[in-house]
Amino acid sequence: MAKDHETNVHELKEKIKTFCEARDWDKFHNAKDLAIAIIIESAELLEPFRWKSEQEVKELFENPQKKEHIEEEMADILYFLLRLAQRYNIDLSEALEKKIEKNNKKYPIEKAKGSNKKYNEL
């Protein structure tokens, strides 16, 4: 079983590519439909947390079956995100680095530390 510290993004994208191409799914996996799938799976991830207190959320992660359900929804989101990146040649590591650089400018530590305000409110 693969672990985060043993796997790179490219390997994951290749694994998904092989899986999808073997099933002839490229024709279904356009940018629009993959983006829709990410939103749908994200909504499914939210469902177990709806109306839960902080303690109830903690208990979700302590319950092996409920934690597994959350993990599966997270995996679905990651799957479709990686598939979108793979299909449209997006380097996610590079995109994340660029976004972090932008966020460093939008949220300087001296203004943003300990604050949940949006950058235009700091």
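the 2nd protein, sequnce then structure:
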Amino acid sequence: MENIGKTFPGVKALDDVGIELYGGEVLGLVGENGAGKSTLMNVLNGIVQPDEGKIYVDGEEKEFSSLIEAQNSGIAYIQQELNLIDELSVQENLFLGKEPLTPFRTIKFRELFKKTQEVLKSLGLNISPREKAGNLSLAKKQMVEIAKALLFDAKIIVMDEPTSSLTDEEINVLYKLICRMREEGKGIIYISHRMEEIFSFTDRISVLRNGACVGSKSTKEIDHDGLVRMMAGRDVEERFFKEETQTGPVLLELDSIHGQGKVEDVSIQLRKGEILGIGGLMGSGRTELLETIFGIFPPREGRLTLDGKPFKPTSPYQAMDQGIAYIPEDRESKGLFLDFSILANVSLTRMEKDKSLYNEANHRISIDRVSEKLGIVAPGLDSRVENLSGGNRQKVILARWIHAGMKVLLVNEPTRGIDVGTKTEIYKLLYDLNKQGVGIIVVSSELTELLMISDRIVTLYEGQLSGEFSRKEANKEVVLQAMTGKKEMVTGTG
């Protein structure tokens, strides 16, 4: 890609960007949120048309006006925001537009099923090809997206945050696939904010900053701190350790809760001003527990209390009315209206609470203050959320709850797909809310993250509590032991 330029209203997204990819190479493409990585890949894949610049594939100049044209030239794109159609089956999603057909133009369903089974098996996925995509977890959807690229034997594979929702075991499967594709001579562009993956998976790294390519280095020639400096243009304090706070009385209590799916007999307490981390493997019931508290799937049995009073939400509206806030893992489809403005997204919950008393002019001033405090980077409050980076989208959801007011904040994967600098900002924002007395429950697949920010950690295994650790007791070894299902309840003191 040579001299690629692209301008959106008010934003110079790409400025004279050039990158090269060789066969049999994994190129890491890194940069802070908003640096231009996804826009550059959208240009490569025909989703966005560049204002200037040229693309060459195997030395031949190409112009792609659609994703299909790029695919026909051997480019596969595994996007960060997944593109499966929930109402279609896994096999229909994998072969959409390229179904095996009979001479009479009907689909060969037996062949479709067999091919899907083969590719799912290669990924170690125990999923029925006939399962509806909408029934899959976010992690399994991500693996199905990866399966798409394998099916059509692409020679260039773009992976945008492919591990953001994957377990360690699934990441190992992906790593083996990447090694296999590299040996086959394919070129892979790998985008990730996880520095350990960039250094483990890639041969060379190109860095984008503010829409420009600021350099490319062999992975062996640069260390972690040097790469972060290239990304940010400054030294960034990546590691954040929450200071201990003086916690107050019990704010939220779950007593023998039986909830959606596997959640069985869970009893935990959350104190005012505390960050409670919840750890567990995929399928352990972490998300289902948060959705039970938020009223998406009301508890089947058990008792909840909030501020010492009985609390049994039968819908998110009731939970919000009582001061419960929720930031979901899949923020794009479950937390935001991407085609709405920042103002509209942040206003929603407060409007529901205030109803006829809501005054947009007054609240615009309030939202502007919150936006400035959170450091949301956008031309203005009327900017559409779909044009924001992942980190800024996360801040928009957080701004919504700060604007509306809350007692308890439930956060599912707080920094999924977010760069190192913005991660620290998010941690500090959670800590500030903590100091104001907000009780926070954080679910994260990153154990290091839980250990950094939590006052206390509980673990789930197959829907049941398997461990509880104070800040001093918690370490990777004992928490992982509890997450993987030791029969007896595990504590930090053994």
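Residues 478 and 492 are 6 Å apart (CA to CA). The mean pLDDT is 87.
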